[in-house]
Amino acid sequence: MTAARPRLTYSELRVVGCERVTPRMRRVTLAGDGLAGFTPVAPDQQVKLFFARDGGVPEVPDPPAGLDDVAGWYQRYLAMPDERRPWMRTYSIRRHRPAAREVDVDFVLHGDGAHSGPAARWAAAARPGDVVGLYGPSVSHLRTPGRHDWKLFAGDETALPAIGAWLETLGPHERAVVVAEVAGPEEEQPLESAADVTVLWSHRGGSPAGRSSLLADAVRSLAFPGGEPFAWVAGEASVVRTVRRHLVNERGLDRRAVAFAGYWRVQLTHDDAPTADELADHAEEAAAG
Predict the structure, then answer these.
(1) DSSP per residue over 169-234, as a string?
(2) Which of 87, 228, 242, 283 could make an SS bond with 51 (beta carbons 3.0 to 4.6 A apart)?
């Protein structure tokens, strides 16, 4: 029997704390009574965040009445005048503290201006008292683990919040391997877990994010532990596609054992339409069931 989906909720939250995780990642703690109805759905759960263009309180249409109203709600959002419609971006929940009605969200910052969108700019300047809208949560992928012996996590720095959250849910008898691409050693961060976890860091150096084969090469060269893996891959969309194809076509993993999510695109913004490759990926993912 399929469990009922938790009801998505919308909340206006305030910043109550900020800290630097690494030089290019900032953690923002959001709090509010609206989080009393926040029901976790997966270790890699995501939310939609809304940022007012004038730096004030975001104006958002009334939340969907149910899952059947999501498309209609999105059309109402798009119909808002440009100057009033808040920016909407998708982010992973790094940590949820239900008793305090708080969530942590980690933002990758782009000090050089490359790929620096409204969410990164907001996060870089965020201060206690700033207001953001939150709608969610939802899972970031269409795959959940079946029977497996160990987990493989692969991604760039944008995937680290979800990877960190997932590792913290693993028990002492579980095993995981993390392959993570970051700019340099200063961007490595502690990843805590009760499980047996091996973390392999790859450093881009001067190569631009999303434009190297570093992550794919690291996964290709990885000596897999024995047993059947479940793989979770996230980051720049084209890199994720390359890693997924390697796992399925060269390593022989069942497509149902590979969860993937393109968090960002090197040549396109969040507001640009999906590419043909992305639409094909989603169709294949949904068809595999």
Answers:
(1) T--TT-EEEEEEEESSGGG------SSEEEEEEEE-TTSPTTSSSHHHHHHHT--PPSS-EEEEEE
(2) 87
**Dihedral over Cα of 13, 17, 19, 21: its sign:** negative
Query: Phi and psi for 214 in degrees, rounded to 5?
Result: -60, -50
Query: Torsion-angle region of residue 30: left (phi > 0), alpha (psi -120 to 50) or beta?
Result: beta
Q: Is there a contact between 229 and 149 (Cβ–Cβ < 8 Å)?
A: yes
Give CA–CA dist 168/81, Å, rounded: 42
Nearest to 39 by CA among 9, 16, 13, 2: 9
Task: Please state, in angstroms and rounded to a whole number, the distance separating the CA atoms of residues 274 and 75.
Answer: 17
Residue 70 to residues 60, 64, 202, Cα–Cα distance (Å):
13, 5, 39
Q: What is the 3-state secondary structure (H, E, C) of 110-173?
A: CCCCCCCCHHHHHHHHCCCCCEEEEEEEECCCCCCCCCCCEEEEEEEHHHHHHHHHHHCCCCCC
What is the per-residue burial (b if ≥16 Cβ within 10 Å, else e) of 14-39?
Answer: ebeebeebbebbbbbbbbbebbeebe
From CA 36, how far away is CA 65, in angstroms rounded?
Answer: 18
Give me the domains of the chain, ranges plus CATH numbers. 9-138 (2.40.30.10), 150-287 (3.40.50.80)
